[in-house]
Amino acid sequence: MSLPHSKLSILYRQLAQQLAAGLTLAQALRAPSPAPAGDCFRMAAMVEAGSPLPEILTAAGDWLPEGDRPFLTAGAASGRLPLVLVNLADRHARIASTRKRVFVASLYPLGVFHLGALVLPFVRMIDFERGLTGGVSDYLGGVIAILAPVWGGAALFRVLVRRGNPVAHALLNVLPAIGGYRRHQSLADFSFALGNLLEAGAPIGRAWLDAGEIARSPRLRRAAERMHMRIEQGLAPGRHLAETGAFPEEFVVRYQNGEATGSLEASLLSLAADHQERADGRLAAATMLYPGILFAAVAAMIGYIVIGFVLKYVNTLNGLMDGL
Question: Do 114 and 104 touch, CB atoms closer than 8 A?
Answer without folding.
Answer: no
